[in-house]
Amino acid sequence: MPALICGSLAFDTITTFPGRFGQQILPDQLHILNVSFLVPELRREFGGCAGNIAYTHHLLGGSPVILAALGSDGANYLSRIRDWGVDTRHVMTVPDQYTAQAIIITDTDNNQISAFHPGAMQEAGKIAVPQRDDLAIAIVAPDSRDAMWTHAHQLADAKIPFIFDPGQGLPMFDGPELKAMIERATWVAVNDYEGRMLCDRTGFTLESLSRLSHLQGVIVTLGGQGCDVWIQGQKHHVPGVSATQVVDPTGCGDAFRGAVLYGIEQGWSLVRSVELANRVGALKIACQGGQNHVIDRQALGL
Description:
The protein has helices at 49-59, 75-83, 145-157, 175-184, 192-202, 206-210, 252-265, 270-285; strands at 3-6, 10-16, 41-47, 64-71, 87-94, 100-106, 112-117, 137-140, 162-164, 187-191, 217-221, 227-231, 234-238. It is of the alpha/beta class. The strands form two sheets. It has a nine-stranded mixed β-sheet with strand order 5-4-1-8-9-10-11-12-13, sandwiched between helices. A four-stranded mixed β-sheet has the order 3-2-6-7. The chain is globular.
């Protein structure tokens, strides 16, 4: 059955700094920070959380339905998604805005500095969750503040189970607002830094958060160290998978979430779904961009 993916569609301008940010930034001079990084490598990729998640979910054999907004420059992105055979009926084009744009600088330690222009994404809250009987699962991924809030409530009203993935959108919400969205979610997915911020703002610990009766699990990604899966107060550590090479971390979290969605759809346990997601994340990090990796379903045992 289809999975509804609520989130951003964006263009990523990705550059590489052949050094370490830490060697260029003086900690005691942050109040007068003025730095410039020479980036000899630059490329433009299709990105955004919804696009990246849908790409991996589709490669694994899922049927993603994207709910997102594009700008006047998004025709080629919309055509690309349609070429995958993905449902785009709920992608809105905003004629007087640019598609969201991310500008990302990555250093040799895979640290990243990013700037983000939301553009058409700011209108995504105007797209309603469709009234469809065939949607088995959904994810609320980073998007505009209004879109994340609105879609979380609409999904709960429609009784569609969903993953709440606040990501880089987390700082837009205060504690009570985050609690309200968690109350409506079925799963929560964060990285380790976001997990600490979420707990700080809500007053939960990861253990107490996972004990909420309506939540089926809390997923905390740990980069190359794997992932912790919290289920009703119990922590299950899922070891990481070594990548053949580390090329570009952009979109790894999205690829991971696309795989988790697929596993849950198949009726797998959350731990088994995360095991698949770790393997897919290792495939993604070996490729540039968020939508260029290839998945061999047979090699993954699918």
